[in-house]
Amino acid sequence: MNMRTRLYVGENLFKYGFENHPLSTKRYARFLELLENDAALKSSLEFFEVDGLCNERILRLFHTSEYIGRVKKLSERGYGYIDYGDTPVFKGIFEVSLASVCASVYGLDFAYNHRSIAVNLAGGWHHAYRDRGSGFCVFNDIGVSIEVLRSKYGNDLKFYYIDIDAHHGDGVYYSYESDPNVYIFDIHEDGRFLFPGTGGWMERGSGKAFGTKTNIPLPPWSGDEQLLSYIDNLIEDVFKVSPDVIVFQAGQDGLAGDPLTHLQYSDQGYLKAVERVFGVAKDLNIGILYLGGGGYQPNKVAENWIRVLRIAVNL
Q: What is the rounded distance in angstroms from the CA atom of residue 116 to the CA atom of residue 109?
C-alpha cells in the first residue's frame, strides 16, 4: 500500500527567508514554478494550507514566554537581529515563523496518525533553542511539534529524529540530550570546520538517554560514500528502536557547491539517502515528517524537492 503524501503550503509559510541573505525565498518560488508544470506530481499530492491556523500558544510548549515576547516585539519593530547577526528581523517575521511551526505541528500529527509522509519544505529550524534563536532559525518547529504530539498522545511516544543537514542540529540535540524517548541520528560536517561547532562523536546523550543519540561529524569534502554508509547504520538503528514516528530534517547544504559548507554530496547521493529513509518508514509502517532545512543553491534545492516528492508518491 502506498503511503499518502501531504504537502504543507501557505503564503506566510513560503515567506520564510531573508533579503540579501543565503537563506532566500527564491527556492520556494522556483519549487512552486516547477510543481505547477508537473501535472502528474500535483495530482498525486494532498495539499494543506496552514496560514492562520495556529495560535502562538503552541510555541509555549517548547519556547520560553520571554523569548516568544521578544520575537513579537522585534517583528512589530521590523529591524534588528534575532541572534548575534545571522538571523535578521523583518516586519511580520513572527507570523511567518509561526506558520512554519504550524506546518510541522500539523505535519507530524498527520504523519503519526495516518502512517504517511508529511512534507514541510519551510521547516527544520534546528538551531533554535528554547530561549533563543540562532543560525537563521527563529522558532524550533521540530521541538514544538514533538511537544504538541506528546501533549495529545502521551509522554511515552518514541520519536526518531534524523538530521542530514550539513550543520549539527544543536537546538534539537541539547533540548533532548537527556530525553530517552527522543532518538537522534545526526550526520553533519565536523564542528571544528563549521557552525555551530558542536555534535562530536562523544555526544551520545546523558543520564537515562545515554546511547539514544548518535552524532556523526564528517570531515570536509566527504561525499556520497560516507553519507550512504552511515545511512545504512542509521536504518539498522531505526529498526532496532522501532519508533512511533520519524522526523527527518533533510537539509541540502551538504550538496557539492553549497556556498556555506564543505561537503560534497551529489544530487543522486542525497536522493538515495532520502529514498532509504522513506523506505524504512514504509517498512515499519510508521509516518515520517520531511523538513526542508538548509540549502543555499536555490535552483538545485527546488529541483531536488520535486524529485523528493516524486520518490514519496512513487512516480
A: 10
Q: 137 - beta bridge partners? A: 134
Question: CA–CA distance from 308 to each of 8, 114, 137, 163, 252 (Å)?
Answer: 14, 20, 23, 16, 12
Mean residue pLDDT of the chain comes to 97
In 53-149, the DSSP E strands lie at 117-120
Strand order in the sheet with 245-249: 46-49, 5-9, 117-120, 287-291, 245-249, 159-163, 182-189, 213-218
C-alpha cell belonging to residue 257: 557547491
Q: Which of 37, 27, 8, 81 is nearest to 251 (CA)?
A: 27
Residues with a catalytic annotation lie at: 127
CATH architecture group of domain 5-312: 3-Layer(aba) Sandwich (3.40)
Half-sphere exposure of residue 7, counting CA atoms within 13 Å on the CB side?
Answer: 23
Beta bridge partners of 183: 160
pLDDT at 1: 52
Q: How far apart are CA 111 and CA 20, in angstroms?
A: 35
Supply φ then ψ for residue 114, to 5 degrees: -110, 5
Q: How far apart are CA 279 and CA 272, in angstroms?
A: 10
- Single pTM value for the model: 0.98
| pLDDT tens figures, 160-180 | 999 999 999 999 999 999 999
DSSP summary character for residue 2: P
Nearest by Cα to 121 from 183, 34, 38, 190: 34
299 Cβ contact partners less than 8 Å away, ≥ 6 residues apart = 27, 30
State the Cα torsion 28-33-37-40 to the nearest 10°: 20
**Helices 267-284, 224-241: crossing angle, 10 deg rounding:** 10
